[in-house]
Amino acid sequence: MIVLAHGVLEMFELDNGIAEQLTEISLNSAIQVRCGNSNAFMVTASTMVPLIQMFEMGGIYISASRGAVEIIQAFESIGIDVSNIHFIDLVSSGILGGTDVPYDNITFIDSPIMLESILLRSLYRLRTTDNPRNFVLIDSVNALAIYNEEKMLAEYLHTFINTFRQREVLTVILNIPDQVPPSVLSNLDLYCTDLIDRGQVVIH
Predict the structure, then answer these.
(1) Are 33 and 43 in contact, with CB atoms under 8 Å apart?
(2) Dihedral of the CA atoms 123, 125, 127, 131 (nearest 10)?
(3) What are the CA-CA distances from residue 160 to residues 26, 30, 80 (Å)?
(4) How far apart are CA 89 and CA 145, in angstroms?
(5) End-to-end CA distance of the chain
(6) What is the structure's pLDDT at 21?
(7) What is the pLDDT of residues 49-84, one digit of tens each?
(8) Which CATH number is 16-203 given?
(9) Neighbours of 189 (CB within 10 A)
(10) How many Cα neighbours within 13 Å face the side chain of 81?
(11) Domain boundary assignment for the chain
(12) What DSSP line would sit under 13-65, residue for residue?
């Protein structure tokens, strides 16, 4: 049973099966997390909570689907402290006033097509952290697929995963399968060592 720092809203329930399965995964793993539109936040939170609370990890949260402030506030609303996580926001720079935020753990990148900048900024942030165990999470591949050419995105994800595996950083890649190009999805199946599919982890 996962107990959140400040309690859980009555209507929100974490999938504790994800936490149990995460104990089987090593730091140099790459996890593909598949979810649907309706349960995306529940699955994301169910993955994040054990990483932060049980395994005491720090990390990078790359936000391509929603602004980082919205995500931080969603976690805070269910009692999850994400102050030790650095958010790389790919969404808010294009919104008037979007970068004027009350949080100091957010970095902004101008566009989701700046894939190299996302990787380099993630590496920089990991070099400046004191936490010995870290993860990097992409939210989400289907959001990146809206802005990036299919082949380029598939190649980028391969490079991204290998870069962090070599550094013993856990990679978590969120996607909604029916919104991801087939070749990108098949390459994720190939590149990732583990799969969380609506709460179930399969070890390849």
Answers:
(1) yes
(2) -120
(3) 17, 10, 27
(4) 16
(5) 26
(6) 86
(7) 999 999 999 999 999 999 999 999 999 999 999 999
(8) 3.40.50.300
(9) 11
(10) 11
(11) 16-203
(12) ---HHHHHHHTT--TT-EEEEE--TTTHHHHHHHHHHIIIIIS--EEEEEESS
